[in-house]
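FAQ: What does a ligand-bound record look like?

Like this one, built around magnesium ion:
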Amino acid sequence: MTPDDVLAEFRAAGALLEGHFILSSGRRSPVFLQKMFVFMDPERTARLCAALAAKVQASFGKVDYVVSPAVGGIVPGYETARQLGAKAIFVEREDGQFKLRRGFEIPKGARVLVVEDIVTTGLSTRECLTAIEGHPGVTVGAAVLVDRSGGKVDVGVPLVSLLSWFVPDFAADALPPELAALPPIKPGSRGIQGAKA
Ligand SMILES: O=P(O)(O)OC[C@H]1O[C@H](OP(=O)(O)OP(=O)(O)O)[C@H](O)[C@@H]1O
Ligand SMILES: O=C(O)c1cc(=O)[nH]c(=O)[nH]1
Ligand SMILES: [Mg+2]
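The answer part, i.e. the structure of the complex:
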């Protein structure tokens, strides 16, 4: 799957939104990828995650456990794990911090991959990695459908992306006039009531 093919899947799903968005990081952007419009279509999700799984296998070899940050990472994490023949678990926020809950455990020696939907600053991916630090498995790396930093972000482990695309974002006090003229919308879940950080 080429970068254009990946973008075409997002576009066909109506997931490529334009406007004035407040990202999870608090930064502002004229573009938002509404990944849930992609994930509502299991066939589309399977196509994207099959391509991601192939890249993962080429870069990291065998994977036993996929761990994803809720909410956005759960569906691509599950489907990528299915394609890799791995288990899929997720971290979710408790008092603002990602944690493995529900009795999820990583077995000793398991080869672990973090799978994310979108990376912008990489904070969510890093927080997920922090949440599983000290587990008895071996973290081989991270994988993401779309890296909006265009490959610039450092998540602390090797990162494989299906699409590396630089999308501009801005500090809230340094908006270009065309963005400042639009009302801001915050679509993500970080920072909503009950989910601090
Ligand atoms: O690289 P970052 O700057 O951390 O931004 C990317 C993160 O933002 C979104 O999650 P969000 O926190 O909006 O919540 P969601 O997964 O529930 O949509 C997305 O799913 C990534 O996890
Ligand atoms: O940075 C984010 O919060 C973000 C960007 C994006 O395009 N899509 C998304 O779900 N989150
Ligand atoms: Mg997320």
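Follow-up question: can I read anything off the structure? Yes, for example: The chain has a mean pLDDT of 95.
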